[in-house]
Amino acid sequence: MEDALSAATSIGRLGEDAVLARVLPRLAPGESALLGAGDDAAVVAAADGRFVVTTDLMVHGPDFRLAWSTPYELGWKAAATNLTDVAAMGARPTALTVAIAAPPELDVAVLEGIADGLREALACLAPGAGVVGGDLSVSTVLTLAVTAFGDLEGRTPVLRSGARVGDVLAHAGTRGDAARGLALLFGEARDGSGEPDASLAAELRRREPELLAAQLAPRPPVFAGVAAAAAGATAMLDVSDGLARDARRVAVASGVGLDFDAAALGADPRLALAGAEDHGLLATFPPGTALPAPFERIGRVVDGHGRLTLDGEPVAALGWDPYSGWDGRAG
Amino acid sequence: MEDALSAATSIGRLGEDAVLARVLPRLAPGESALLGAGDDAAVVAAADGRFVVTTDLMVHGPDFRLAWSTPYELGWKAAATNLTDVAAMGARPTALTVAIAAPPELDVAVLEGIADGLREALACLAPGAGVVGGDLSVSTVLTLAVTAFGDLEGRTPVLRSGARVGDVLAHAGTRGDAARGLALLFGEARDGSGEPDASLAAELRRREPELLAAQLAPRPPVFAGVAAAAAGATAMLDVSDGLARDARRVAVASGVGLDFDAAALGADPRLALAGAEDHGLLATFPPGTALPAPFERIGRVVDGHGRLTLDGEPVAALGWDPYSGWDGRAG
Predict the structure, then answer these.
(1) Where is each PurM-like N-terminal domain found (chains A, B) (predicted)?
(2) Do A323 and B15 touch (CB under 8 A)?
(3) Element (H, E) at A232
(4) 8 Å CB contact of A47 and B44
(5) Cβ within 8 Å of residue A39, ≥6 positions away
(6) Residues of chain B above pLDDT 90, percent
(7) Residue A5: per-residue pLDDT
(8) B76 among the known binding-site residues?
(9) Is the alpha carbon torsion for A152, A155, A161, A164 positive or negative?
(10) Do the chains contact at A132 and B35, CB–CB below 8 Å?
(11) Does the annotation list A259 as a binding residue?
């Protein structure tokens, strides 16, 4: 332990107060914070008498690797993925809380980088939203827990269960790029023993910046959530586990079938359907709706309780299960 | 991995949907949930146009050990500690979100037990509040992230910064019991190599049920937070890191000194001041206030920016730092 803490800037050596003194100035509580970090709890405005809330854990190993992600990208992604869940309800994101458990030997610069990524993702994807509070804890595994809040501004939340036969199926965001980025990392940025390798990742990053960014620091169309709700979206969700798997959730919740248009899914419809972590928005709209940008029509709502088809042909279950899909010993 | 997952009830073998199907029915979204778990986000009522929010991580190792805590106690404590942070603002707790990262080989019964503890702690400590949402993730280290919400019901939040010279210093809850319980566990429930031992803990539990319960499943006076605010508390906080350390936060934030009355702190004032994790409420009240039960007078607010005294004598800094206070290799 003493060796591990020998660096003067390890968080264990600095202690909680000193760490917070370096991290908190990099964050802003945002326009909805009536009281920010520093007391037992924060106070956040909820003008319409309700708030939207979603929470996610990101764990070193299954969810990210510091050999592949910069701390900045990690903070960015933690914000982006949660903001998209808020947007998928048709709400405007207002605030985040961020709890981090980290090994004592971690350099405080990692937490500073995470804070920078959180701040910049908020500024880019949800201007006015901020980090209102959080927690610091210790763990042998670097872990981020983000909870995000949103304001429905008087609108009815857009659920997964409202799709109706005849509706247009539409999507906003990338389709498959995040999965292609992850496949590149697994294929070309691991060392001989299968472990993530930072220098191989840096080389890959120079060759494939867009696909790696789609995986490591996605830019989901958060603003399009409010636009979709305002345009009358009947159902909506954040596509985190893959288009097919998440679409099936809409189909089951709504008691309908969904038929994808292969021509609209690009050169590799199977990858577009299977690829996880794009964090686009999948929504259904009444026929004839002028789709708000960047939504694109990718299919239609048909009869069939929970049934997915591609140009009318059944789509096998594709996607990702956080428990059964992960082997803790492999990359 | 296959060996570890051979149990039919491991969460990795069951998969996320089956795990949720077993865990969610044990939880209720509560009276403030306008939309509970199952969509991208929950929707929670915030009638007074604001909400209080606090978040905490609990990590296997530094924060709990399954050899010492039952899953039920772990869920109970995760709820209790966060509810107290909400109460310390003078708010009525309304809802929790709970994110859990767990090893794939964990038996689903552990998550069921955690859910039972969460539910019962809510029913006991904050009737009407519920679990509105969450997340399941994988990690080699069992980790719980709880975020709690509260309703100020029109009241001004009670901050740490409002104590005034001449105010009464009061405390509600146990003082030192949780630390005594932890000391017993470290002293008498570890095996020859220093690792937590379940059978030694079970034996200890029979002999010292109250002190172990104070540490493993605390019953903080959550309801007293609203009562304190209604009685005019000028400052308040949750005592998690030890009475002295947390009192110093009030003293610094308020620009005052705090003088403890040794006779009011029981047989061992040093333990009462140092012992962490009791999760009582420390508050200051204008002189002459009829203290709401179970608050007891334990001192007074005096001149002195951030200075703590015990019967007028300086109190050394005592307490707990989550980074510098923990050695990952030791119990």
Answers:
(1) 38-150
(2) yes
(3) none
(4) no
(5) B89, B157, B159, B160, B237
(6) 87
(7) 60
(8) no
(9) negative
(10) no
(11) no
Q: Which residue has the tokens 């603003």?
A: A223
- Burial (CB count <10 Å: 0-12, 13-18, 19+), residue A285: buried
pLDDT band at B7 (very low <50, low <70, confident <90, very high): confident
The CA-based angle A87-A93-A95, given to 5 degrees, is 145
Smallest CA-to-CA distance from B99 within B60, B147, B67 is with: B147
Q: Is A140 known to sit in a ligand binding site?
A: no
Chain A's closest residue to B1, CA to CA, is A327
Instruction: Give B36-61 as a DSSP string.
Output: -BTBSSEEEE-TTSEEEEEEEEEEBT
- Separation CA A276–CA A268 (nearest Å): 14
Counted across chains A and B, CB pairs separated by less than 8 A come out at 268
Residues of B in contact with A147 (CB under 8 A): 53, 55, 97, 145, 147
Tell me the pLDDT tens digit for each residue of B130-158. Answer: 999 999 999 999 999 999 999 999 999 99
Give chain A positions within 8 Å (CB) of B160.
38-40
Q: What are phi and psi of B166, to 5 degrees?
A: 100, -15
Answer whether B19 touches A (CB < 8 Å): yes
Asked whether the beta carbons of residue B101 and residue A57 sit closer than 8 angstroms, the reply is yes
The interaxial angle of helices B198-207 and B177-188, nearest 10 deg, is 130
Question: Known binder of ligand: residue B268?
Answer: no
Give chain B's domains with CATH numbers.
Answer: 11-151 (3.30.1330.10), 168-173+220-314 (3.90.650.10), 180-216 (no CATH)
Q: What is the pLDDT of residue A4?
A: 53
Cβ–Cβ gap B134/A55 under 8 Å:
yes
Q: With an 8 Å Cβ cutoff, is B149 touching chain A?
A: yes
Query: What pLDDT shows up at residue B146?
Result: 98
A78 contact B CB<8A? no
Instruction: Report residue A26 as tokens.
Output: 């990099």
- State how far Cα B221 lies from the chain centre: 11
How many whole angstroms separate alpha carbon A88 and alpha carbon A159?
8
pLDDT at B161 over 70: yes
Segment B207-213 long-range contacts (CB within 8 Å, at least 24 positions apart): B208/B181, B208/B184, B210/B177, B211/B177, B211/B180, B211/B181, B211/B184, B212/B181, B212/B184, B212/B185, B213/B181
- The residues of chain A scoring below 50 in pLDDT are 1-2, 325-331
CB distance from A331 to chain B under 8 Å? no
Work out the average pLDDT over B255-263. 97
- Do the chains contact at B58 and A137, CB–CB below 8 Å? yes
User: Which among A132, A115, A82 has a CA at the least distance from the CA of A11?
Assistant: A115
Chain A residues with CB under 8 Å of B326 CB are 12, 104, 138
